[in-house]
Amino acid sequence: MNESERNIYYLRGIPVPETPPPGKDPSPWKKTDIVGTSIPRVDAYERVSGTALYPSDIRLPRMLYAAVLRCPHPHAEVMNVDTSAAEGMPGVRAVISGKTSDTDFAWWYSKEIKTKIFDPLCRFEGEEVAAVAAETAYQAWDAVRAITVEYKVLPFIAEESKSLDSSSPLLHPNGNTAKTDKYSRGDVGAGFSEADVVLDETYRTECELHMPMELHGCVASWDNDRLTIWESAQGVYSIQSRIAEILGLPLSKVRVIGHYMGGGFGSKLQPGKYTVIASLLAKKTGRPVRLFLTREETFLAVGNRPPAIMQLKAGVKKDGTLTALEFSCIATGGAYPANGTSLVDWLVRDLYLCPNVKTETKDVYINAGPSRPFRAPGHPQAAWALEQMMDALAEKIGMDPIELRLKNIPSFSQGREGNPPYTTTGLRECLSEGARAFGWEQARKRSSGSKENGHVKRGVGVASGLWFAGGGNPPSTAVVKLFSDGSVNLNMGASDIGTGTKTVMTMIVSEELGVKPEMVQIEYADTATTQYATPSGGSKTVPTEGPAVRAAALSVKQQLLSFAAADLKTDDSSLTLRGDEVISMKDPLVKVKIHDVTGLRKRGVIVGVGYRGPNPERKVVNPFAAQFCEVEVNTMTGEVRIVRFLGCHDSGRVMNRLTYDNQVFGGITMGIGLAMTEARILDRDQTGKMVNRNLHDYKLPTSLDVPKEMKSLPIEKPDDTANTIGAKGLGEPVTIPTAAAVANAVYHAVGVRMTGTPITPLQLCQALEKDGKERSK
Amino acid sequence: MSSDEDNHACSCGKGLTRRQFLTSAGAGALIVTASGHLGKDQEVSAAVIKSGEGTKITLLINGKQFQMLVEPRWSLLHVLREELGFTATKEGCGRGECGACTVLIDGMPRYACMTLAVEAEGVEITTVEGLMRGEDLGPVQKAFVEHDAFQCGYCTPGQIMAVEGLLRKEPDPTVEQIRQGVSGNLCRCGAYTHIINAARRAAEMKKSGAV
């Protein structure tokens, strides 16, 4: 894993244990019986019956409820906090703030700038000022409202485009630039002079918020010096290491449990200040404390996809050869260094063949909540720019947009040093087979300039993408335990964040040991009892954990066959597992029931340990995608109805078609949100506060916003070079091209280029009016 | 900004939301008599219900009666989850925006966060736990499993109750009716396509009595 990948997933600086090499790699599966089929999730019962306990469902004896007082200003200094009234209120058991001596712990959004848990200088609306623990959540909020704070309100800046103006207030002593990154290959000047067509356009994507349905938070409980945390998290070990570091505790004394969790999308890779606050309140009161944020707080303080202003200049020859791409971007990770421009230029560097590329990205500070990684950081933004540009270039040279893309497909990663090849790339098939399945040519002709519906116009659009990571990596350790009746226990540290990890891992065990999936029980996501795993993010969980689980299952199998060989007085290489028996492949009469195998009976269980091996050297493992959509645009009202979508993805082997399709549709749904409805709105002139901090005004897609026709067409190319299960990541690529595909379809329908998200009826009407005026000139 | 504003004291943790309006109204609840018109300097003579003081109510949840003391400001959601342990019903926003807490009240889908517990006396409340037959799943739940109609599963109990409510009213809904029927239930994982398929399947299962 390279440094930028470590950085995105908060692994920099965390002591990541190296796992031992996995031994001899098993050969790839030629034929599978379980893997690749459609089976319902192994934990479906728990999730539909309500017996699945999410961290926010945990109720411990004597548990208290906590609430946090947050700064109502985008930029202010806390002069005084008076908690005396709150302390005397019914049910209140503890009040803490920057004034109380027991809260002096460091906090950092990145290692560059440290703050405190209750820092006197609040740089964004929603920074933590004080917290209360009380017998009920109602009483905790009563007390929060009774705390009096004296603020010195400071000037703020709420627009990244003005952050670097000399008149803007400084957020940090070294100025408002968090980071500038530059990249260059070839000579863009020469590239543009070679081009037949050069286009230059500015694009804008608005700030998008994660909004998982389960709120952010945890339950914290102490037993003397041992802290146990149930957190709604994407990974338990990443929570454990950060909390241990902040509180100065040994890792063994911090147990984090994260079984079920209600969505994260990147915002729950790390603990929040809430985790520390709950722990401090629990320590102070000697009682367990549950602290879950309100929905409103999650709009302010637990991350976002940074807004980006992107300028892209592109040159193309008449035959479709790209000659140069020049990209610059200003984005903001908010009030602290938080990777505001992370990977935002990656698609420009890597998606299409182009010898001359130059990018410059600048991450600036504004007085708003720090960003957190959000499903494919940087990529949907870049796709919004690049994929609309490809569409525009194709039109200018009179070429079909799919053909233009097909002319520029690389087999190696140009954005990386030394141009390493991709292990596999299915981008060509995603585009061509997707186009066939979608009926692209017919739909393109049918809707092009269609007049039959009067003011309602139809259009189709395509966009493609790749995801920078998605190959998985070490470390990972898995343990498989075979009981004497042939049933199996799988022990792994990874979280299942709703992507179906547990189900896929069960299928791998089932495949190798021949047990039915329902005979496999999983223990997972608990730092005290399960193995080490990095957090579930980066579309890497299946390709990371899968090979370790397979290796563990194969180890069990090998041990069992050796024991059986001793009983049967034969060579273990002639034996195989079939149902509940070990049987000779040469003589079917030579067999023994699993529960009669002497070695197993003597031990009680057979334990196999599996490790994730290294990735192939000097090769890149990336998933690829193309998505197609058809829209209907009402030119009188500006409304866009998305009629159908097709997601065509190369993520290597399809592990479970049912959960695979669900993931594809989910990514498209989230991308529709970015394209059509979602935007954080700050009152940039008067107060700097966020004005749409609720789910009525910040609109997530509903069942009425997704097209009635949703299709998924996997381009299944098992990637046997990448890892021993042949799978690549899926969770992020599925949302990368979506918004751009919608914008391209809108353009095809009405001939208006929507360069800014979201495509609201108002924006579209204004664009149509402007376009009409220009045409009539 | 004026210098006044630069140094002003503020006790507001956040803006006033509907939920907080309800809770703060409850916190210092003024019980106004029918004739009373509450003027600024009019003395309030009625009893003030303090935080922590209970009112006795009886709730009928999944066919069982629960007698309990509640604060008048408590939402039905709070009582279900925190007082009685019916944690299948989830909290996603606490103020009628997301639908995660959808339960049936007299067979109709309602947001438990927008219903005060004291309002829920004398009605029939059904949660996901109430769709179970012992340890066995009901038809809507089975259809959700079969069609993988969820990812993280957090909005799922609410989605299931919305579908259950729809099917009780309209046993054979069209796709459009289903889309409308679950449109008050947000799913950030975006499992809507599968939820709609599951709702169709549940209607078939219920009709054929195959469950």
Alpha-carbon distance between the two ends of chain B = 66 Å
Into how many domains do the coordinates of chain A divide? 3
Number of beta-strand segments of chain B:
8
The CATH architecture of the largest domain in chain A would be 2-Layer Sandwich
> How much of the polypeptide of chain A forms β-strand, as a percent range?
15-25%
Structural class of the secondary structure composition of chain B?
alpha+beta
> How many helical stretches of chain B?
7
Radius of gyration of chain A: 27 Å
Would you write up a description of this structure?
The complex is a heterodimer of chains A (777) and B (211). Chain A is built from 19 helices and 28 strands. A seven-stranded mixed sheet of chain A has the order 3-7-1-14-11-12-13, sandwiched between helices. Chain A has a five-stranded mixed sheet with strand order 9-17-16-15-10, with helices on both faces. Chain A is of the alpha+beta class. In chain A, helix 14 runs parallel beside helix 15 and helix 17 crosses helix 18. Chain B has two domains: 120 residues, Beta-grasp domain (Ubiquitin-like (UB roll)); 76 residues, Orthogonal Bundle (DNA polymerase, domain 1). Helices cover 32% and strands 15% of the residues of chain B. A five-stranded mixed sheet of chain B has the order 5-4-8-6-7, covered by helices on one side. In chain B, strands 2-3 form a two-stranded antiparallel ribbon. In chain B, strand 4 and strand 5 form a beta hairpin. The longest helix of chain B has 17 residues. Chain B is elongated, with a radius of gyration of 21 Å. At the A-B interface, helix 2, strand 1, helix 4, strand 8 and helix 8 of A face strand 1, helix 2, helix 3, helix 4 and helix 5 of B.
